[in-house]
Automatic annotation (TrEMBL):
Ranges for domain Transposase IS200-like: 9-124
Feature: compositional bias, Basic and acidic residues: 222-236
Organism: Marinomonas arctica
The name this protein goes by in its record: Transposase
Gene Ontology biological-process entries: DNA transposition
Pfam families the record matches: Y1_Tnp
GO molecular function: DNA binding; transposase activity
InterPro entries listed in its UniProt record: Transposase_17, Transposase_17_sf
Length: 236
């Protein structure tokens, strides 16, 4: 079966996921997380990618970013992946692949889903039972977006900026978003879009994308998705 093409729209953010091979750990020590973030900061600057949110989990990574060109994200992820694998293999005296195939990415409808994806990403450690609150996890963008801790690589999306007139107002409004749970239907939509590399958006947004690009925002269904239960139960 042919690979589904990467979906791209100018100025449209992407939810990016990269997993460790066989779900094995790709971070073992604090220095590993720091190395990955260093490589990501350099690659994002080099290839023109604005990073809005991220979380580094034990065996996978989530990034919310807006590329400046169609190739920006692929070049960034190739650079991070290559440099980090070299670092990881050298550090732990291992050989071979670290990542599970290609990274996955999905376009995000800013009006409907963007701030929800911000929260979805930064709440990963909470859903995984690793911490009680997003603020307790050190390897995500939450401290920056919610409390002003400096993370140089981050660029606020316009939807985040619109939360308030000042930095303090935006951070306060952002923290309030975390006082309510993300609806189950939104979590399901985010997971399904990510696993299928679909467009994540309203029906109108998907139709506009398809008209503009000439590529299906979602693949056609054929008698239902036999893996849907599996996808619902996966932790991302």
């Amino acid at each position: 079966m042919a690979r589904r093409p990467r979906l791209y729209l100018p100025d449209c953010p992407l939810h990016i996921i990269q997993r460790g091979n066989n779900r094995d750990a790709c971070f073992r020590d604090d220095s590993d997380y720091k190395a990955y973030l260093y490589f990501m900061r350099e690659a994002a600057a080099q290839y023109g990618v604005s990073i809005h949110a991220f979380v580094l989990m034990t065996n996978h990574v989530h990034i919310l970013a807006t590329p400046s060109t169609e190739k920006s994200v692929s070049r960034m992820m190739q650079s991070i992946g290559r440099r980090y694998v070299q670092y990881f293999n050298y550090t732990y005296s291992r050989t071979g692949t670290l990542w599970e195939g290609r990274y996955k990415s999905t376009l995000v409808d800013t009006d409907r889903y963007l701030l929800t994806v911000y929260r979805y990403i930064e709440l990963n450690p909470v859903r995984a039972g690793m911490v009680e609150h997003a603020a307790d996890y050190p390897w995500s963008s939450y401290p920056h977006n919610a409390a002003g801790v400096e993370i140089q690589m981050l660029t606020p999306h316009d939807c985040y900026v619109a939360l308030g007139k000042t930095t303090e107002m935006r951070e306060s409004a952002y923290r309030k978003l975390f006082q309510t749970d993300i609806p189950d239907m939104d979590i399901e939509a985010i997971r399904l879009a990510a696993n299928k590399s679909w467009v994540l958006g309203s029906k109108k947004f998907i139709e506009q994308f398809e008209h503009r690009v000439g590529v299906a925002g979602k693949t056609a269904k054929h008698g239902g998705d036999r893996k849907s239960k599996e996808y619902r139960n996966q932790r991302h």
